[in-house]
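Archive transcription. Copying these from loose printouts into the bound notebook so they stop getting lost. Printout 1 of 2:
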Amino acid sequence: MNRTLQWLLLIVISAALSAVLLWLAIPAALLLGPIVAGILVTSNGGEITVPSRPFVLAQGLIGCMVAKMLPAAVVGEVVSHWPVFVGGALSVIVASALLGLLLSRMKVFPGSTAVWGLNPGGAMTMVVMAEAYGADAQLVAFMQYLRVVVVAAVASLVARLWGLNVAHTAAQAVVWFPPIAWVPLAETIALAVLGAMLGNLLRLQAGALLIPLVAGIVLSRFGLITIELPRWLLTISYALLGWRIGLGFTRPLLVYAAKAFPRVLICTLILVLFCAGLGVLLVLFAGVEPLTAYLATSPGGADSVAIIAASSKVDASFVMAMQMSRLAAVLLLGPAMARFVAGHAEL
């Protein structure tokens, strides 16, 4: 099959799988669909790859998306409860690093790959940064999205015990073509393009992602820019990233991931239980309402957590402040933690 037909097949399969996953209210459906489609194409003889320039632009747009997720209001919430947020974020990061070290010692994955795969930050962000820092992006994606699915499933189950119709809320949350503010959209695209180009020119690790992210936070904070990311634009970015991941899978790599699945799943469940334990401590010692505490400490799947929080009578600002403060901590400490574990994996 020539490359044009391969691309058409990839797009059609991606759209079909994403539609099914969205209908099932699966977290990160718009990314998981292209990942699975890429795996199907490349494991059946496909030879296409995502060009570097569109992939770099997609990283810039994802950086803008993360910047939009970190509003100024989060800062005030973190400052007012800083011991809780600092302690919670660092505890989860240390726990994930220890589990990553365990996987490394067990020879399941290399040290840096294991840490990036278990880091409880935004899954897309962790995959991009892992690739920039030399880890195996495909295996990191496998670990990250396994955790996202597990965490979202458990969080949805807990929410249903509180009588929340999460799937219905998730379906209602998708607005494909909202009214667009064209000037903010142009500003956002300019930030993504220029920031990603600057990151590449400076040869910064994950610079194409981090420069638009940091610049977006600063510019938004001072009212110099409004980040506008319509759903269709994010969908294109998700597809490019998903294809980049999925098309990198080979049959030997799939076999390797399948063999590692039971141990990765056990580590993921341990991390979920550890975070639930942190939630219990918040209830006992900080007086936080139980569902609020659980959602705030849930290790990843921030989009799913946001949907659940928005549909319930919890302190949504506290929940998202905890999630976003942990993401910020992982962005700052993730590279050092990966190097540390990689250096001690053989000791």
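Printout 2 of 2:
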Amino acid sequence: MRKFFGISLSLILLILNTNLLANEKKEMLFYIGITMIKPVNVLAKKFEKKHNCSIKILQGGSQDLYESAKMSKEGDLYLPGSLSYRKKYLKEGNLLDGKFVGYNKLSLVVKKGNPKNIPANISTIVDDRYRIVLGNEESGSVGNATKKMLMPLGMYEEAIMKALYLSPDSRNLTKLIKDDKVDIIINWYATTFWEENKGLVEPIVLSSKIAKKKKLVFNLLKSSKYPKLAKQFMDYAASKEGRKIFYKYGFLDDKDLKNFDKVTF
């Protein structure tokens, strides 16, 4: 009888442990570029409820985030501010499947109401009359994209020399305008949609021939503990519901929505 009781107790404990593991929340880690944090936060909260999981989001400059994911060998998804990071690092093997969710595009950004009447002309970025700060290409996608935009125009070196200094990411750039420490920045257009920004800053939209759209693509990380669940999140972000959220925050327009399913990368 004692032997039978011991086996039964072991079985009960095994069943209890199995049930506990089954009910334990899966914890995922996402690396998200600062500019995209708003829509991803909204999507993450909805996804957590539906799939009984928890999502931790690390935000920062796209380059810094990739280095963190690479060094730690932890995390499930990576969303940089430009497709260039996927193209640059795909051969390293840390980035697997990808999913397109929208576009980033650069814009001049000034104080709300444009008090200095700054024109929609890229040459203002080297005008001595204005206080200017640019993004640092070595830390964030906005600096990297700024260099790529200005180099073909022959303006990058001059702009760097005339800038007061370089800012690490899009959030810090916006804060400089809000604090009235600079007159012009080049930043991602979508940052002007943020609730805390839209009453204090405004975009000066540049020609699409100059400020070309940058594709935003979620990347499944090789280190993912839950690749199936991570892929489900990517699919959700690219679904009709996900598109509406990215649209709300300025990463898609009406034309983009119409052509969404035709986008390749």
